[in-house]
Design brief:
Helix content is 43%, strand content 13%. It is an alpha/beta fold. The protein folds into 2 domains: 3-14 and 86-217, HAD superfamily/HAD-like (Rossmann fold, 3-Layer(aba) Sandwich); 16-80.
């Protein structure tokens, strides 16, 4: 079965506001106020530790010990407000439904912890549109290691050589290259069309174009 695998944050959904709010909750608890702004959305899509590092660097006091200490607090704050501002990108639901109607399996492979990812897609009402979900802690490794991607395809009932990845970062590009599969990177994330610098197999300007793109890239 042909399979399309999606990244979650910055690809299926704009989660940046809720991620940034969780990091700022940590900084407020430490008495520093909000150190991150909406302009830091790209950092948010690189994960909780990246946001904490950026905030502490603005204090001139970057320490991995501080990052490690605050990371559990960030996860707890994020869990509390995981879907406050998060929204699926326009056309995402319709594109996934069209793929499934055309005989594709669909899956999610994300570097968000699996429990949080499951909670988010359930609250967004789309968990039933995906045959498998692999998170950062589902396996011993995470993207760009190939194992989580392969697991997401296989658990969805597909085979890696007949799959593709839709993502928004260099991590996704590297994952696809490691798996030997095509990758489409979205241009509606914080990088916009600057993501073309990564030279993916395709750029995705709107989810309306995905079903036709998948037909072309996945044989």
């Amino acid at each position: 079965m042909r399979t399309v695998v999606f990244d979650l944050d910055g690809t299926l959904a704009d989660t940046s506001a809720d991620l940034l709010a969780a990091a700022n909750a940590c900084f407020r608890d430490l008495g520093h106020g909000d150190l991150l702004t909406p302009a830091d959305a790209l950092t948010a899509f690189h994960g909780g530790r990246a946001m904490l590092r950026l905030g502490f660097s603005r204090l001139g006091a970057l320490s991995e010990a501080d990052v490690d200490a605050q990371y559990p607090r960030l996860l707890a704050a994020y869990a509390d407000g995981i879907d406050t501002h998060t929204r699926l990108y326009p056309g995402a639901v319709q594109a996934v439904e069209a793929l499934r109607a055309a005989g594709f399996a669909t899956a999610i492979c994300t570097n968000k912890p699996e429990g949080l990812a499951q909670t988010l897609v359930t609250r967004l009402g789309v968990r039933g549109l995906f045959d498998a979900l692999i998170g950062a802690d589902t396996l011993p490794t995470r993207k760009p290691d190939v194992a989580p991607y392969a697991a997401s395809v296989e658990r969805a009932g597909g085979r890696v050589p007949r799959s593709m990845l839709v993502g928004d970062t260099d991590t996704d590009r590297k994952t696809a290259r490691a798996a030997g599969v095509p990758v489409a990177l979205v241009t509606f994330g914080p990088e916009g069309r600057d993501i073309a610098r990564l030279e993916p197999d395709a750029l995705l300007d709107h989810f309306d174009h995905l079903p036709e793109l998948a037909e072309r890239l996945v044989r």
